[in-house]
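Tokens as discussed.
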């Protein structure tokens, strides 16, 4: 798999029927290794190891309804009260981060109401803070620290 713009992390792999799977610490199972999954697993490690977000507050690949359609978010980090602190959208490294990608995560966020958003293809990372009063988001250099008092 391609080298990504994250620190080096250690992963567990399994080969089954000539297909490689990577172990997901959050879902506690092996997942077929696709380019997007490679990015998602790096994001999970980044959230756990660099940002120090609690593992028990992270959720990966869950279904949500957007305008009556069934969609899946890549990852979220919950606040202690159950609201969403961070919504993450992962793309494969070859997928360019365009306005359409931001429109996709913004659409998901109309339902989820996260405080922050992260969009990444593993090479380029974008962090945003939501301003619901002005109905816009502001770009940040990094994600904020996670505190249990939010």
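Sequence:
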């Amino acid at each position: 798999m391609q080298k990504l713009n994250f620190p080096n992390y250690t992963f567990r792999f399994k080969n089954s029927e000539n297909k490689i799977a990577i172990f997901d610490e959050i879902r506690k199972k092996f997942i077929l290794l696709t380019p997007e999954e490679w990015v998602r697993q790096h994001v999970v490690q980044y959230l756990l190891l660099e940002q120090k977000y609690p593992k028990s507050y992270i959720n990966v690949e869950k279904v949500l309804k957007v305008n009556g359609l069934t969609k899946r978010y890549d990852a979220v980090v919950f606040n202690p009260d159950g609201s969403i602190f961070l919504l993450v959208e992962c793309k494969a490294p070859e997928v360019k981060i365009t306005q359409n990608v931001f429109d996709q995560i913004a659409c998901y966020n109309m339902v989820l109401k996260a405080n922050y958003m992260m969009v990444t293809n593993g090479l380029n990372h974008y962090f945003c803070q939501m301003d619901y009063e002005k109905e816009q988001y502001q770009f940040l250099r990094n994600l904020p620290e996670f505190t249990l008092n939010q």
